[in-house]
Amino acid sequence: MNNSVPKYSGRVLTIAGLDPSGGAGLLADIKTISALGGFGCGVATALTVQNTVGVEGVEPVSTALIIEQLNSVLDDIDISAIKLGMLYDENIIIAISSALNAMAKKYLLVLDPVIKSSSGKSLLSDNGVTHLREKLLPLTTLITPNIFEAETLTGMKIKTQAQMQTAAKKLCEMGVENAFITGGHLDGDKAIDVLYGAEVEHVFEEKKLDAANSHGTGCALSSAIATYLSQGDKMLDACTKAKKYVYEAIRTAPNIGAGNGPINHGVKP
Ligand code: PLP
Question: Closest residue (by CA) to atom 8 of ligand 1?
Fold first, then answer.
């Protein structure tokens, strides 16, 4: 047996909801971080009852317990990036943003603004959206919304690449350093993603993948970017590499479950 000590590059903490089927949320984030060579830690914000067919229930973890989990990890482990996923409601957002604001260390923060599941279940309250805008955007290094999430946060309709670019700029005006809007849900045969920030502006364009299994792709993308950033990559390189990883993970997705199944988190990009 080889007992050599594993070498991890990047220590990434995900703060997210738990999907017990392992396709999205905290468990999936940890799989992605591990696949890319990082060491993953996880703070649970909510427990969901879900599988590949849909979300049947959600129960939040108390804000006190969330902050205890957060402090316990951060007091002990030198975390290099934090990924935020499902946050459930305004109480959790207020607690987490206050805790992060009070810390001396400023973390590299990747925010996946999860609002609802692809099966239509709400994963963030309406008040949560308002507080996410006001309290979390100013702390965020990179936000990774899909079209629906970008529309909800900016209040604008997005149907074209130009509108995606306007929305990304608007998100930066609202306080984030960088915005990466994924356009996989736009009409057309091209998948367009837009990255915009103080030091970067880029449009990614590729052929759309006909994905039979795509549960949790947003979670994987944001976790992959957080891992690459924590390993020292620049924003554009981190997003380019994360897109490639997610593309390969979708392309080689296993057929697990009866519904919209998980992607192949373990794929080596
Ligand atoms: N459940 C949890 C806990 C999540 O964090 C997410 C992430 O977006 C989802 C469900 C939604 O996944 P999907 O968009 O694939 O339905």
Answer: 114
Give pLDDT < 70 ranges for the chain: 1-3
Specify the residue for token string 């052929």.
Answer: 207
Could you read off the pLDDT of 190-245 as tens digits, one per residue? 899 999 998 999 999 998 887 888 899 999 999 999 999 999 999 999 999 999 99
Looking at 36-89, list the stretches that DSSP marks H as alpha helix, in order from N- to C-terminal side. Answer: 63-76
Distance of CA 16 from the midpoint of ligand 1 (Å):
9
Burial of 143-153, coded b for 16+ CB within 10 Å and e otherwise, reads: bbbbbebbbbb
What integer pLDDT is reported at residue 146 of this predicted model? 96
- Residue in 26, 30, 56, 86 to alter for ligand 1 test, most ligand atoms within 8 A of Cβ: 86
Residue 117 alpha carbon to ligand 1 centre in Å:
5
Alpha helices in 77-191 (DSSP H): 90-102, 126-131, 147-154, 161-173
Q: Which atom of ligand 1 is nearest to the CA of 86?
A: 5
Distance CA 48, CA 39 (A): 24
| Residue closest to 61 by CA, chosen among 96, 17, 111 | 17
Among 117, 250, 256, residue to substitute to test ligand 1 (most atoms within 8 Å of Cβ): 117
Is 229 within 8 Å of 190 (Cβ atoms)?
Answer: no
